[in-house]
Design a protein that fits this description.
By secondary structure, the protein is α+β, with helices and mostly antiparallel strands. The chain is 60% helix and 9% strand.
Length: 397
């Protein structure tokens, strides 16, 4: 550890004695000024009739050092370690010199040692406090009996160190508690921001699924209408396809409302969603096992986009540990009135979005072309707290 770091004050304004516990700088300075006045009055009242020159000078120097410390509580620039260390050493030495004539001079020595213990680490504080006994020896040997009050001077300096170290420990614990509370608050804010970002992502996923399904199916329908109009198809077929397009728009609005309800935490029946979607796309639905209510969404848009005009089969299995959903179709030869190609729709994120949502729920997802030329999508989602609703057996897995 370098000398500079040792003499860096632990507090911005350590104060003197109990005044250091006062947070307001002006109130702390006022308390220190009162303490200085009392100390000066005690020493002046007990000085001998003929104190000589050394004692009054030492008292003036100690009082001046105390005043400098008071000014330092109001000046930020004074908080540098070298300034505080110099003032503490001078005050400690001046009090010891005054103790050669008047025992009450040790007030300044004890206060300075306490200040050093509060402001600096133990080794640095001990070095600064030795200025008291050393100054006493230098003053007592030529001008008074020796060792005289040397033992008292050392004891007062030691007592000041102990008192200051105790207050330093209290200050450090208070700062540590403040830092812990601050870090905890920052962690809570970061967690809240992460939850908010996750909620925004979930909202984007939900809206994407609704829009991808509705707009994708509507794009397919418009392609069919365009093909019928270009091939001079019967008017009845064209009207039927237009009506189906209106139905798709109405269903899309209903799905948007369902998504809003799901985002609000309202339960949505998975079986009811599947039945509605299968009816819309003329798909076959098979439900296996006891129905469970899950907070989940599904769509048949991808199957319809990959193989329009073909039969879609949906199988949902409600097991004891998980629920499985399988969606598949075949790809027969296109009919004369079936469009040969589709206009591109969506951003290509439908399957990826479903995969992410299934994996987020702790399940498995598979999608790809089948051996018969069709398309297969399969998902398995385990029951967990948060995606399991009312179970028929009353258990909660």
């Amino acid at each position: 550890m370098s000398i500079t770091s040792r003499f860096s004050p632990a507090a911005d304004h350590p104060g003197i004695g109990l005044s250091g516990m006062i947070p307001d700088p002006r109130a702390r300075a006022a308390a220190m000024l009162v303490g200085l006045g009392v100390s000066i009055w005690i020493n002046v009242a007990t000085l001998p009739a003929d104190p000589g020159v050394v004692a009054p000078v030492a008292l003036a120097v100690a009082a001046l050092a105390w005043l400098v410390l008071i000014a330092g509580t109001l000046l930020t620039a004074f908080t540098q370690g070298a300034h505080v260390a110099a003032v503490a050493a001078v005050m400690c030495a001046a009090g010891a010199v005054l103790a050669v004539t008047d025992t009450n001079g040790l007030i300044f020595t004890g206060v300075a040692a306490s200040l050093a213990a509060v402001a600096f680490d133990p080794h640095a504080a001990l070095v600064l406090s030795t200025a008291g006994p050393v100054a006493y020896c230098l003053a007592a040997i030529p001008h008074g009996p020796f060792p005289g009050r040397l033992l008292s001077t050392a004891a007062v300096a030691l007592a000041g160190l102990v008192a200051g170290a105790s207050r330093r420990e209290i200050d450090q614990r208070a700062r540590h508690s403040t830092l812990v509370a601050t870090e905890r608050r920052r962690t809570e804010l970061a967690r809240a921001e992460a939850e908010l970002a996750g909620e925004r992502n979930r909202l984007g996923r939900e809206l994407h699924d609704v829009l991808a399904h509705t707009l994708g199916a509507l794009s397919i329908q418009l392609t069919a209408i365009d093909t019928l109009a270009r091939t001079d198809a019967p008017r009845e077929k064209l009207i039927t396809q237009i009506e189906l397009g209106h139905e798709l728009v109405s269903t899309g609005l209903d799905e948007a409302r369902q998504a809003v309800r799901a985002l609000r935490g309202e339960a949505t029946s998975l079986a009811a969603q599947l039945e509605r979607l299968c009816e819309l796309h003329q798909a076959e639905l098979e439900l296996d096992g006891s129905r469970q209510e899950l907070d989940a969404d599904t769509t048949l848009t991808n199957a319809a986009k990959h193989a329009p005009g073909t039969q879609v089969n949906v199988r949902v299995g409600f097991g004891l540990q998980d629920v499985t959903v399988q969606v598949g179709n075949t790809r027969p030869a296109p009919a004369p009135d079936t469009p040969a190609a589709l206009r591109p729709s969506g951003g290509g994120f439908g399957l990826q979005g479903m995969r992410e949502r299934v994996e987020q729920a702790g399940g498995d997802f598979q999608a790809g072309p089948a051996s018969d030329g069709g398309w297969r999508v399969a998902a398995r989602i385990p029951y967990r707290r948060g995606n399991l609703g009312n179970r028929s057996d009353g258990s909660d897995r």
